[in-house]
TrEMBL record:
<keyword id="KW-0813">Transport</keyword>
<dbReference type="Pfam" id="PF01547">
    <property type="entry name" value="SBP_bac_1"/>
</dbReference>
<keyword id="KW-0732">Signal</keyword>
<comment type="similarity">
    <text>Belongs to the bacterial solute-binding protein 1 family.</text>
</comment>
<dbReference type="InterPro" id="IPR050490">
    <property type="entry name" value="Bact_solute-bd_prot1"/>
</dbReference>
<protein>
    <submittedName>
        <fullName>N-acetylglucosamine/diacetylchitobiose ABC transporter substrate-binding protein</fullName>
    </submittedName>
</protein>
<dbReference type="InterPro" id="IPR006311">
    <property type="entry name" value="TAT_signal"/>
</dbReference>
<dbReference type="InterPro" id="IPR022386">
    <property type="entry name" value="Chitin_NgcE"/>
</dbReference>
<dbReference type="InterPro" id="IPR006059">
    <property type="entry name" value="SBP"/>
</dbReference>
<dbReference type="InterPro" id="IPR019546">
    <property type="entry name" value="TAT_signal_bac_arc"/>
</dbReference>
Length: 474
């Protein structure tokens, strides 16, 4: 999901209008769960010290697989150089096919020491954790941070980061590195050149889209081939209308959660965009790169996306585009949450396999990534925030337009930051099933009431499926 879903191939086989048949689950984690080859092949422990709090074997090599997506790989290469100054050589492998490349190694008991488990072919971390395939990361979180030996790593992280790695208890199984701001991305220049104001209510949104249509500019586009992009604005829209509990009910697979009034209002609003011709023609057939390119060409105003888009769309973005992200447009004054509410959370998940030869090295590499030096380097390279609190303070003058905008809206949101979990708790439900329904809704091929019923049907099937581990908000 999010930065974890950039530069991916299309794994969603959208159902036809007649059927909406769900695609089989992407993961084959039952195979991972049964693989126990290799036995205990871990390298010898190193001696713990003030400079080596995790006891890394300084002579042991480190096997690191990084996802080659919207964030690129340079930030990982730079961190590897820092690691190698104190420890063994880093073997860095870049790929977009995380599951295809690594599943055989997970099954065979010979996984890498650290994995950037991202992209369309990411492995289901929740399932891996449930099957004992991951290293618990408390030793990393309780270790002293590189910047301040008197401060634990866990105390340097933005709110919600640790929670994103938990699955029903206090144990932490993954570390999400990037801090993604989701919302309605747009060009400030386009709005300013036309004298248009950013819409705060849905009536204002429709009025803006009508004005744009008269000038041959669409209101919206999105990644039609990847309809799970639509929730980047739809989920926080639902939460803004009805409050956080509405999203928690959806996450918890509560009966009739998809039939709540806030969902109905949001579905009707989005359906109206299609019904009134405010969605860029041909959008259902576009992938994420194509839709972003149409957007940067000025063919439309808004695109639902995450803060990785500035880096991913850099090649097609005009120098004076003034890329920005806005919080979700609300419905009206009856909304439970104020304007400025948005969805922001830690993404780009890193995991250390339980059967890794050098798990201490994997955690130490993460400790390096969580230093201010690496966090600032990441921000400069890929125009996105990390989960390290305050890492970019004082960098405002150096920030790119999109990064500066993301930082500003995050600060302005204050406590009104939503954190839905359906996308990572129930990946198949979110990506393939809900995604296929939203594709039909936004293409105008399905009415809101039917879409709500179909989403609820899929959620109910997931709730009744004993093979799917269930999670609950506290």
């Amino acid at each position: 999901m999010g930065p974890t879903d950039v530069n991916r191939r299309d794994l969603i086989k959208r159902a036809g209008a007649a059927g909406l048949v769900a695609v089989p689950a992407m993961s084959m984690l039952s195979a991972c769960a049964t693989g126990d080859g290799g036995g205990d092949n871990k390298v010898a422990k190193g001696e713990k010290s003030k400079d080596n709090p995790l006891g890394v074997n300084k002579d042991a090599p480190l096997d690191f697989v990084i996802f080659d997506g919207g964030f690129g790989t340079q930030y990982g290469k730079d961190a590897a150089k820092i690691y190698e100054r104190k420890y063994g050589e880093v073997k860095l492998t870049a790929t977009q096919k995380i599951r295809s490349v690594l599943q055989p190694r997970m099954v065979g008991g010979n996984p890498p020491d650290l994995i950037d488990n991202s992209g369309a072919e990411d492995m289901d971390a929740a399932a891996l954790a449930a099957k004992g395939q991951l290293t618990e990361l408390s030793p990393l979180l309780d270790a002293p941070s590189i910047d301040d030996p008197n401060t634990k790593v866990r105390d340097t992280l933005l709110p919600g980061t640790i929670e994103m790695g938990q699955y029903g208890d206090e144990k932490v199984w993954r570390l999400n590195y990037a801090y993604t701001v989701y919302g309605q991305w747009y060009s400030k220049k386009l709005l300013e050149d036309n004298g248009w104001e950013y819409p705060k209510t849905w009536d204002e949104m429709l009025a803006l889209c009508a004005k744009a249509k008269k000038k041959g500019i669409a209101g919206w586009t999105y990644a039609g081939q990847h309809p799970y992009y639509i929730p980047f604005t739809l989920y926080p829209f639902i939460g803004k209308i009805g409050g956080p509990e509405v999203l928690k009910n959806i996450d918890n697979l509560e009966p009739n959660a998809w039939k709540q009034d806030a969902v109905k209002s949001a579905f009707e609003a989005y359906h109206e965009l299609a019904a009134k011709g405010y969605v860029l023609r041909g959008t259902p057939g576009l992938d994420h790169i194509q839709s972003q390119t149409q957007w940067t060409k000025g063919k439309c105003i808004f695109i639902p996306n995450g803060s990785w888009v500035e880096n991913e769309a850099a090649d097609t973005t005009p120098a004076d585009f003034e890329m920005a992200v806005g919080p979700v447009t609300g419905l009206d004054d009856s909304d439970k949450l104020p304007f400025g509410t948005l969805w922001a959370q830690a993404g780009e998940p890193y995991i250390v396999p339980a059967q890794a030869k050098n798990p201490d090295g994997g955690m130490e590499f993460l400790r390096i990534l969580l230093s201010k030096q690496s966090a600032q380097n990441f921000a400069k390279l890929v125009k996105s925030l990390t989960c390290v609190a305050g890492a970019t303070d004082g960098m405002e003058a150096e920030m790119s337009p999109g990064l500066a905008s993301a930082s500003q809206v995050l600060k302005a949101a204050g406590d009104n930051v939503l954190n839905p979990r359906i996308f990572d708790w129930y990946k198949t439900l979110h990506k393939e099933q809900i995604g296929s329904v939203l594709a039909e809704l936004m293409a105008g091929r399905m009415k809101p009431a039917e879409a709500m019923n179909k989403c609820q049907e899929y959620a109910d099937k997931t709730a009744k499926d004993d093979s799917v581990k269930k999670y609950k908000h506290a």
